[in-house]
Structure prediction request, 84 residues.
Amino acid sequence: MITTNIVFDRKKLARKTGKGTLEVRITVERKSCYIGTGIRVREGEWRAGKVVNRTDAQTLNDRLAIIYEKVSSEVNRCIQDGQQ
Prediction:
């Protein structure tokens, strides 16, 4: 089984540095791979899988959606090609 999702502050740096990274996690047969999105937000700016409480929240959420869609489509292409 293959799953993809967006993860906030995987390395728990938000408490130390003030901001945590957003990454796309791909899990295949219980092994995970992370792809950075280049987006960093504070703990209070991430809720229920969305960037909130920022003036540029919509722009960042749109960027996340595009990145997530590209990763998901590539994963689906690999599945269809039998590459898993």
